[in-house]
Amino acid sequence: MLDIILFEIGFWLRTRAFYFNSSILILFGFLLITSDFIRLSGAETPIFKNSPYMVSYAYVITLFFGAFIAAYLNSNSAYRDFRDNVYELFFTSPIKEGSYFWGRFIGSALILFVIFLMVLLGMFLGNFAPWVPKEKIGPINLWSYINPLLQFGIINTFFMAAVFYSLTSLTRSAIIGYLGGIAFIVFYIISGTLTATLKWEFLGIILDPLGMASLIDATEYWTTSQLNALQIPWTGKMVLNRLIWFFVGLMVILWAYYRFSFKVGVVKSKREKVKGEVVKVEKPTFKPSFSAFSFILHTLRFEISMFYKSYVVLVIILFSIITLVISFTGMSMIFDTPVLPATYILTDFTFGNALLFTAILSTFLVGEIIHRDMENKTFELVYSSPMALNLFIARFLAVILFFAFLMLVYIAVGVGFQIYKGYYNFELGVYFKRLFLEVWTYAFMFSALAFFIHSLINHKFLAHMVFMAYFLAVLFLSNLETKVFQMGIFHYPFVPDVTYSDFYGYGHFLKPLLLYKAYWSSLAVIFITLGLLSQRLKMGISFIKAIKMNFNRIYAFLLFSFGIIFVGLFSYLYYNHYVLNGFKSREEERLLSVGYEKKYSKYERMHIPKITDVFFKVDIYPY
Questions:
Q1: Residue 142 burial (10 A CB sphere; 0-12, 13-18, 19+)
Q2: Quick check: 259 pLDDT over 70?
Q3: Alpha carbon 466 to chain centroid distance?
Q4: 375-408: string of b/e by CB count within 10 Å (b at 16+)?
Q5: How crowded is residue 233: how many other Cβ atoms within 10 Å of its Cβ?
Q6: Positive/negative CA dihedral, 335, 340, 343, 346
């Protein structure tokens, strides 16, 4: 078994994925300490960047996003021999099943542990950067980096590796392993929703697979000096949480080992006896049609049916519905005060939930429609067909229509929850307006970006990682102190915050919402056009040559017209927001606040008239 462990470790040490992920995490940790490029909170705080609390908090956040790395790495270790069609060589060799199973698992788990260790190494090295202001750095304490490793690193790494490796080794499908990563995030969201209510706070802490809730609970009432100086204690809730998830991971990996076998099942079909009768079969009539419209229509129907038959897609939708219902349940009690499930409140909660799952589904669905032909070894047949571009147009339209159906599912869930609570003022117009105008347009823009990225990159999982890395980059750049990166016109496809009122609807927010949606939609069409032009990259053709082969007047018209719209809206939004109305960065707003405080602090104790009593007579419909 030791030889297999060393082989697995050596394999990953020779891959670019190991060094890419390690470099990203060590840079992430280093920048957390040395610059304001990455922040864990929106405003500056007096907490030291290298305090025990900040180190632990940053490490757990890294483990949350690292679930996708774990899903890829451990699933790959379990599935690699099947993907490369060499499993028969291993399964017929004198290697024992236990040595093979545990060797691959331990080797991949150790590699994952080393990758997650990089963020702590980066934070530790950041302490010695000479340009970091001394008032932002506290005393260097080595235990501040060892303690989170013991509390969260070892158990979380073991749990993630056990779950993803077990799922993939039993099903022999990498997709199931990736699905486990989504389930991991769902559990974290559910625990966060439960901890927001006093009644279910303890259950939420226990159900948190990362341990973040127990970390926040242990330091909830600490002062700034305590956060800067004290190590995170092993509270009773934290110990219970860590033990539960350790034993869950242990049970999962032991169950997977019990079920694991070198034998590859073969389903034997029973041959039915056919009587010696002569059956007359009529020759089917076939009328070939070369209409692009009819081809797109038939392909559209086929692709949508494929989505509905995919158990992975159905499970992701189920996860989304579960988290949505749980968030609705938490919404019904705000600070233990009952709240009516008004439609505008439910759509607010739906927006946050749907945004995450539409982003996940968009890259997954687009990845399937783009890379399916490569995986089925039919890409040469497809890409040499005169209908190849129409095929991908139909496939992309199927993705967009699928998201329209998903919006209807969200509406049905919201209405069902209102009926359950005895609230019958459904306001279907608000549902359709908010979900389709805000959420469905996001799904379209996410899918357009995913379509472009997957068209350029031949490796499906790498394209998934680039897609997620883009949004992390947008998040990090928006926290940069440089003014230009704080401007919303550079954060595709996000729009400024919009408030929907039950009295005034969108009000004055409607115009900027529509302008930003049109602005990013024009860029989305450009992404789709470039993605269609670069489809032949899968055949080994260069990007420039692929564009020349596919380019025609239609694509020229699309790129030119939507390019003009994009530039025109960019100019209008830039002038309106950042020139005419004087956009201010976070630093400029902070300096203004400081100036106001200095200017008006002399009036702090001045006696001024105050309102002591107010009487209102208000008629509110319907009550």
A1: exposed
A2: yes
A3: 12
A4: eeeebeebbeeeebbbbbbbbbbbbeebbeebbe
A5: 11
A6: positive
Residue with tokens 């073969």: 266
Q: How far apart are CA 179 and CA 539, in angstroms?
A: 29
Q: What whole-number distance in Å separates Cα of residue 396 and Cα of residue 524?
A: 12
pLDDT at 44 over 70: no
Q: pLDDT tens, 279-297?
A: 555 555 555 555 777 878 8
- Spell out the alpha helix ranges (H) of 219-341: 224-229, 236-259, 292-309, 311-331
Of 517, 509, 357, give the one whose Cα is nearest residue 436.
Answer: 517
The reported pLDDT for the residue numbered 39 is: 56
The rounded distance, in Å, linking the Cα atoms of 356 and 597 is: 39
Q: Which of 231, 219, 208 is nearest to 52 (CA)?
A: 231
3-state secondary structure of 337: strand
Give the pLDDT confidence score for residue 7 in this predicted structure.
Answer: 86
Amino acid at 168: T
Q: What are the structure tokens assigned to 167, written together?
A: 């799922």
Query: Cis omega before residue 622 (within 30°)?
Result: yes
Angle at 218 between CA 215 and CA 223, to 5 degrees: 110
The pLDDT assigned to 292 comes to 74
Per-residue confidence at 269, pLDDT binned at 50, 70, 90?
Answer: very low
d(CA 461, CA 368): 11
CA 398/CA 443 separation, integer angstroms: 12
Structure tokens at 222: 């600490």
Q: What is the DSSP letter of 85?
A: T
- Here the tokens at position 137 are 């750095």
Query: 């199973």: which residue's tokens?
Result: 101
